[in-house]
Amino acid sequence: MAIISYAKVNLFFILAMACMGLIQCYIVDVSQETFPEPLQVYRGSFWAKGKYKMVRSTAQYIEFIMHGNFSLYSTRDLKNKNADVFVEEHKRGDHILVAVLVYDTTSSPPLQRSYFEVGRSHANPVTRACKNGFVNGPLAVAFDKQKDTWHPVIDTMRRYRNFNVHLWYVICNHACDYRATTEARHWYGDGEYHVSPITNIECKDNDERIPPSTLSGHFHGFSNIGRRFYAVVMDPAWKERYSITIPPIVRGVFRPMNIVTYPEDLFDEFPLPEVSRPMNLQIDVSTLEGHCSEVVILGNLKRGNWLYTQYSILPRKNPLRMNVKVVNVQHDRTIYETTDDTFVTHVEVFHNYINKMEYVVVNTKKLCQNTPGNSPWYEYIKRVYSPRDNVLPLTYVDLTDQGRHVFLEMLYSIEADYPPIPAARRVSSSSDE
């Protein structure tokens, strides 16, 4: 294997040689968005709108690795053509870092790493520390429930609880997690990874206007239990485990509810004044990405003519101690902010993909004024907002005091049928724990 010239190369010359049979290989340009079989592609995201992409196969199919006009790496000298090759692109704006990992069981050491910084006029080798510093935080890799493969940093394991066996998909690049057979070991020391988003939790609709349904969060792993229930774990030690419930359809009517269940004693205290709350949390209804670890997002459930999205606050910290601001960053608008006597549990977005109507429902709990003694009483208040029709810049109208119950009755009585869910997943033989 060899790192080849970083200067611009004549790509047409290489392609011509390939056509003449002088180069029997795949030339992989990782800057592209589509790749032929048998190359496998996985995608993800990281801090500050960073985009991640991995292309993997064996040395038999990846011999020249390029990024645009720059030739970065060659595996032609490898005798073992079954060696695994992983090519990763980390991109934020015009700043790009490419990692090449080659795993060859006939070599010593078996794992070889190379890293490159790619600019408009250069491609230079850099260190692994430079790549990790560029990512600068957790890297979220997507998991598609309708596909039979997933990013190799994710592995499967069976865990036993209450005499039941559950299949988990877990980030396994931590020393305490991985086993000798897992490919996730190749990313040991590469920092924190998350499984997110989990896409196609319901089968993708044939209508191109309908984006895939998703479940997003800072998940270390997840398990799907039936149609409506997910268990997620937030840390490698498995100390933070939460249940996620997809809102039900009851007798043909969609019944939205908080996807997170709170402990009964969580609200046995009075809310702190705004200025004393130790945490500020922002929920941006214009995106499903970039939220903090306290937020889990159920995105784009198709219910009738509506797409339903929910941003729910996990009880990792007490919501009573959070100042929550609901915003639309894309249009630079603030929709709602907590007050001294309120706190937020979850935010719902209803988007009608036919007539483009949209409603934002902020679910709050407000301290009752006649609360006796040391036992706080709270009332649920749903605040309803909607963008003003055909008005720019975008402005949200507060409908809470303008017939709120009429809008809530419409939104919480959407007629719908359960869409199909993806078939059971293939499980690797290394899944037993």
TrEMBL record:
Keyword entries, A-Z: Signal
Domain of life: Eukaryota
Signal sequence segment: 1-25
Protein's name in the database: Spherical body protein, putative
